[in-house]
C-alpha cells in the first residue's frame, strides 16, 4: 500500500531533479554567453586597433602633404618666385585674425618678390565701438548719427583713403557731397579730419584713425621708401575670419576702395587654423566656407576686386598671391576657393 510518505519522497525527488537540471542548464548557457561576448569584445578590440593604425597612417600622409604644400607657399617657392616683384602690398586684417595667419600671408608675399609695405589691423574701437569711442570719433572726424551710421561712414572713408594711395588712384577724385545725416555742418574746425580727396588727406585721415585707436599700422620696418602710408601705388590684401560678420565694416570698406580703385584689392577669408596632419572638418553651427566673402561676390563691385575663401590653407595663400598678380598683370579679377 502506497502511503503519504512515499508521495512526499517522490515529489521531493522530482523537484530536486528539476532544480539540478535547471542549475546545470543555466551554467552551460552562462558559459556559452560569456564565451560569445568575450569573442565579440576581442573582435571589436582588434578592429579598433586596425582603425587606429589606419588613422595614424592617414595623419602621416596628410602631414607630409601639408609640409609639401607649405613649401610651395613658403620662402624659396618656385611657384611664387617673381610673381609680384617690386609690387608694394599692404595686408589689412581684422583684430580677430590670428597673427600666425598674417605672418604666413606675409611670408608668401615675400616669396613672390612683393615689397611688404606694412600691416593694418582694424581694431575694436572701429569694428565694435563703445560709447566713448563713438564720442571721440564724432568730434575728431566731424560725424553725427548712431553707432551703425558712424561706423559705416568711417569704414567707407577708410576705403577711400586706401584707394587714394593705391596702384590705381582715382584720376580726378570728386569732393564727396556732405551728408547731413552723418556729417556735421558747423564752420570748419582745423582739428576735424574730413573725408579725404587726395593722397595727403588720405594720410591725415589714416593718422586720425590711428590716434583714435581704430587702426594700428605695423610691420613697416622692412619696407623702406614704400612703407605704408608714406608711399603710394599700394595693392591690398584684406583678411577676415570665416565666423565674422563682414557687413558693418569690411564690406563698406572694400566697396569704397574697389569702386574708386578697381583691381587693387583682394579680400580673403581665413577659416580655423588646422593642425598639420588633421583633416579639414565642418561641424554643426560653423559658418559655411566662403560666407565671409559671399556678400562681396554678389555685389556691384564683384568685377572690381578678387576674393579667396581658404586663406588658412597653403593653396589659399598661393591663390591670394596669384590673384594680386593677376590684377596687376592683366587687369582681371577672380574669385577662388569653394
How many extended strands? 7
Shape: elongated
> How far is the N terminus from the C terminus?
100 Å
Q: Return the string of H and E elements.
A: HEHEHHHHEEHEHEHE
The fraction of residues assigned to DSSP E strands is 5-15%
| Strand-pairing-aware structural class | alpha/beta
Q: Could you describe the largest sheet, including whether it forms a barrel? A: 7 strands, mixed
Note the total helix count. Answer: 9
Describe the structure in brief.
The chain is of the alpha/beta class and 338 residues long. 48% of the residues lie in helices and 11% in strands. The protein folds into 2 domains: 72 residues; 256 residues, no CATH class.
Notes on the structure:
The protein is of the alpha/beta class and 338 residues long. The chain folds into 2 domains: 1-72; 81-336, no CATH class. Helices cover 48% and strands 11% of the residues. It has 9 helices and 7 strands. The chain has helices at residues 4-72, 99-111, 124-127, 131-141, 147-164, 199-211, 250-260, 291-297, 314-330; strands at residues 88-94, 115-122, 215-218, 235-241, 265-270, 306-308, 335-336. Helix 5 (147-164) crosses helix 6 (199-211) and helix 5 (147-164) packs parallel to helix 7. It starts with a helix and ends with a strand.
